[in-house]
Amino acid sequence: MIFNKEYESIARQDLDQLQIERLQSTLNRVYRNVAFYKQIFDTHKINIERIKSIKDLSSLPFTGKEDLRKSYPYDMFAVPLRDIVRIHATSGTTGKAVIVGYTKNDLKMWTECTARVLSAVGITAHDVVQIAYNYSLFTGGFGFHQGAEHIGACVIPSSFSNMPERQITLMKDFKSSALICSPSYALQLAYAMEEMGVHPEALFLKIGLLGAEPWSEKLRAYLDEKLHFISYDNYGLTEIIGPGVAGECEKRSGLHINEDHFIVEVIDPKSLKPVDPGQEGELVFTTITKEGFPLIRYRTGDLSSLIPEPCACGRTLIRMKIEEILQKIEGTSPHYQLILGREEGVEKIELKVEISEDLPSIDELKTLERLRGTIAERLKQELGLQAKVTLAEPKSLRNTVEGKKQRVIDKREL
Amino acid sequence: MLKIRNLESGYGKLRVLKGISLHVKKGEIVTIIGANGAGKSTLLNTIAGVVKTQSGEILFEDQQIDKKSPEKIIGLGCALVPEGRQVFNPLTVKENLTLGAYLQFKQKDKSPAAATLREVFSLFPILLEREHQLAGTLSGGEQQMLAMARALMSRPTLLMMDEPSMGIAPLIVKQIIRTIIHLREQGVTILLVEQNAKAALAVADRGYVLETGQIVLEGSSSELLNNRDVQRAYLGKEYKKINE
Asked: Which residues, including other chains, have CB under 8 Å from residue A39's CB and lie 6 or more apart?
């Protein structure tokens, strides 16, 4: 179902007008209220009055994660702290946490955005929605909670738990029809169900709304089979709002970005120039309705490409896809870990990949060696990355921190 | 219905509007709020063609109007109720209204104008009572109604109103607000400029906040009412806390 037809199916030319109006008023506000933006616009000699179309956005400087860390805790807020009604933070898995503040209107907008994502995958007022994200500074739990209540679903804030058995019991007893969590946590639940001997038919799940980390079509197919639901992807990041930035519709062919609130750009991470339409690059977002923590051209570090063709679902909002490389290689499971290290001053990167139990002749050294070579070769081809590849036992890379997979382990001391 | 991109205008070398973009959809009531001197009246006068556009564009019903003369713009269905009423004091109420239908009178057939006059009188019965009175002898509220009625005589699809509540008794303000709502029900789209932000946001669907010639905020009326900056600057809330 389309939650807000007026905006999700807006004519592209009307969206263009809406975006420029909102962008201009956001620029006027950040220039007046955020010292960081006043300073970088002034040093780059940028006159924000010259931003006359969405294309002109590319003449503005980027905001990076490092800028946000330097502003810890409140320096990027565009309103006084007394106007903030909620604080969230990034998990800080790759460094110091970023603190994000929301005004009343920001929460209202966020609720609308997650309500859209939930509705798009078919969740309605008749669903029992179990939210297994942590209810904490992390945005996953509260973000979806508001949206699910807003559309009138019955919400079970089961939160993340290191005891999957408890989660499964709740799912069974409360007849949960939709599960919201990270893909790796869903996998953990699937494994636990097998160990507990709970057949998926004993549950009432119809829909899985998974996100907060990249996952593959392969994992999707596996989870759909093991949990007897249809799973959907969604995308968001705390710096921009949390979940609700983009989500899949029932077509499962890309994630619709809520462009009436966030302007998306895709850039070449090396040249920092916009890529051609449909090409892969780094996602860059500008918030155009946020009051508390507006960001101009925020570099997400996430790779994706946009799908310029309209979607059959009737939404006019553009779609993005997140690319995966490992998923295309037979014999690997969807689990991997990157280990960053330094040997004698030289930076090294190691990629640890879990092998799949289904790999034929798994115990033959020759097979494993060939697999390792294939992965290393593909990494070099597609990413230009010289990495040491090691293989890990099936099911050995399943540890999660707060329901989020630890994808990167940084062993460098400085 | 109305679409404005990067509008700049002003008086001589004085640039008042510094790149305004806004839109009004058919059937909406949209308000522009802002302090004295923010550029609210300049904006309406520029749309009406009274003040010249320096750069940017104004589209009305997909037609570019930023280079058109005021009478052409009225002819397209975009009428202005100016700030401070500006009725013709030495003329009677009826003569004022007839002038409002000037464009129709230029055509030979006068019957549509007569029909519009009847409609306008039914909207403002007080004006029928005062039909032959000189406009200068009316009260402030009655003059405001006359100014609105005069604009309606041109049968606009977009009615722009500049500070209709200025200098008028609160009771009459309520009556004018009721008329605005009634007009919208009749299919007239309304762009309302007000210093009385509370009254304007109560009736409008959406609003823009204008500050020194730039739009600093836009959103639905409820969002603007929820915004603490709007509350502090335009709704007189948190008065004591401002100096903290």
From this structure: none
- Do residues A290 and A316 lie in contact, with contact meaning Cβ atoms separated by under 8 Å? no
B18, B215, B227 member nearest A291 (Cβ)? B227
User: CATH number of the domain at A327-410, please?
Assistant: 3.30.300.30
- pLDDT reported for residue B242: 47
Instruction: Report how far residue A413's alpha carbon sits from residue B4's, in angstroms, rounded to the nearest whole number.
Output: 55
Q: Which of B17, B20, B21, B208 best probes binding to A when mutated, by most A CB atoms within 10 angstroms?
A: B21
Mutate to test the interface with A, among B1, B6, B54, B60 (most CBs of A within 10 A): B6
| A332 burial type by CB count under 10 A (0-12 exposed, 13-18 middle, 19+ buried) | buried
Contact call for B216 and A17, based on CB within 8 A: no
How far is residue A6 from each of residues A14, A264, A335, B233, measured CA to CA in Å?
11, 20, 40, 31
ipTM: 0.90
Contacts of A107 in chain B (CB under 8 A): none
The structural domains of chain B, with segments of one domain joined by +, span 2-243
Nearest to A105 among B215, B216, B223 (CB): B223
- Chain A residues with beta carbon closer than 8 angstroms to that of B215: 21, 24-25, 28
Q: Where are the beta strands (DSSP E) in A238-297?
A: 242-248, 255-257, 262-267, 281-287
| Exposure letters B93-107 (e unless 16+ CB within 10 A, then b) | bbebbbebbeebeee
- Find the CB nearest B215 among A17, A25, A32: A25
Contact B166, B84 (CB under 8 A): yes
Instruction: Report CA Rg, chain B.
Output: 18
Q: For A10-53, what is each residue's pLDDT tens digit? A: 999 999 999 999 999 999 999 999 999 999 999 999 999 999 99
- CATH assignment, A1-324: 3.40.50.12780
Cis link prior to B70 (omega < 30° from 0)?
no
d(CA B164, CA A408): 62
Contact across the interface for A28 and B218, Cβ inside 8 Å: no
Domain ranges of chain A: 1-324, 327-410
Give how far A84 is from chain B: nearest CA, Å.
10
Q: Contact B226/A105, CB-based, under 8 Å?
A: yes
Q: How far is CA B128 from CA B80, B181, B227, in A?
A: 22, 21, 43
pLDDT tens readout for residues B194-210: 988 999 999 999 999 99
Cα separation of B215 and A11, whole Å?
A: 23
A21 → closest Cβ in B23, B211, B229: B23
Q: Which helix (H) or strand (E) holds A128?
A: strand A128-131
- Which fold, B2-243? Rossmann fold (3.40.50)
What is the C-alpha separation between A334 and A125, in angstroms, rounded? 33
CA distance B156 to A106: 37
Query: Cα-flanking dihedrals φ and ψ of residue A35, to 5°?
Result: -55, -40
> What pLDDT does residue A93 have?
60
Asked if the Cβ–Cβ distance from A25 to B228 is below 8 Å, we say: no
CB-CB: which of A20, A24, A83 is closest to B228? A83
Mutate to test the interface with A, among B7, B201, B217, B243 (most CBs of A within 10 A): B217
